[in-house]
Amino acid sequence: MKRVVRCFLYLTFLITCCSYVYAQDESIGRNVYGKEEEFVRSIPLDSFYAEECSEKGTVETLRYTCHSYALEAVTGESDIMVEKSMNVYLPYGYDDNKEYDVLYLLHGTGGFEDYWIGDSSTGRITCNVLDNMIQRKECKPVIVVSPTYYSPVVSMGYRDMEPTELFDTEKDPYADQWPMYFWKELRNDIIPLVESEYSTYAQKNVSEENLQNTRDHRGFAGLSRGSKTTVNSGMMHCADLFAYIGSYSGAWADVEEFKKILESDEYKKYDFKYWYNGNGTDDFSLENHEEFLDEVLEKMPERFSLDKNVAWVVFQEGGHAYNCWIADLYNSLKVFF
Question: What string of H, E and C letters represents the secondary structure of the chain?
Fold first, then answer.
């Protein structure tokens, strides 16, 4: 049975990657910082990473009740409460007496909490990649949390839709609003729940002051609209909680507002240790992402620099797809924490 599962995962990995060939962006070598020599510079990842590891981490599910902050903001109603869950990857040998860094990892349109971590084809591959990276000491043992930015009430039927249906803004009229208000759920619900439950550098003290003091051990990454969320919610509203950001395929943010918020008295003292940006030459989000990052680098050179704390990695023939995003995650874990 294990052999069948391994074959299935390997085939899934190849299918998502088969239309891509080895290619390297000539700019990569000079546009990364730190461990650039260890970055994956072509897709797909070596198929080894998709295979089951002898030292497997575990996945747990946390369930919680919270406000639907986006619906409340858009409708003007209050106390719209929803039941939600998120999946948590714990590394092999997880020990409650040790302290772990935490990466919060977000899906894109049509995905839910099991896209990155959980019982889906991509979720199982991600866990295998994490297991193999940790076993080979390519990254530190890390807790990875996979929530969902969707917060619809049950009657809206999101869970009954096919993933492709959620690309239709008539079926999901709040598609661009979920990422903009997700920061409230991060601050009020997700981070406090996770870091009071598991052994992180916060040591189960989830006061705002302590979470701010331990931001160097916390990261936030996402793909597509999840990437939009990393910028609009993570950087612009939670700069005091995250020191590491991974934006995979897009930004869709206003540079002037971004600059104003990060230079405000509230956030000006919180520098980002590393901001990884990944995209592909065949990805529809490339132009938007590149323009946003170029303008940020031009207007905020003391906060963000390709020579200091920013990576811009573009995979040749890379599309808006998992085979790029899992490579982005691999690269992120090489330089985070």
Answer: CHHHHHHHHHHHHHHHHCCCCCCCCCCHHHCCCCCHHHCCCCCCCCHHHHCCCCCCCEEEEEEEEEECHHHHHHHCCCCCEEEEEEEEEECCCCCCCCCEEEEEEECCCCCCCCCCCCCCHHHHHHHHHHHHHHHCCCCCCEEEEECCCCCCCHHHCHHHCCHHHHHCCCCCCCCCCHHHHHHHHHHHHHHHHHHHHCCECCCCCCCHHHHHHCHHHEEEEEECHHHHHHHHHHHHHCCCCCCEEEEECCCCCCHHHHHHHHCCCCCCCCCCCEEEEEEECCCCCHHHHHHHHHHHHHHCCCCCCCCCCEEEEEECCCCCCHHHHHHHHHHHHHHCC
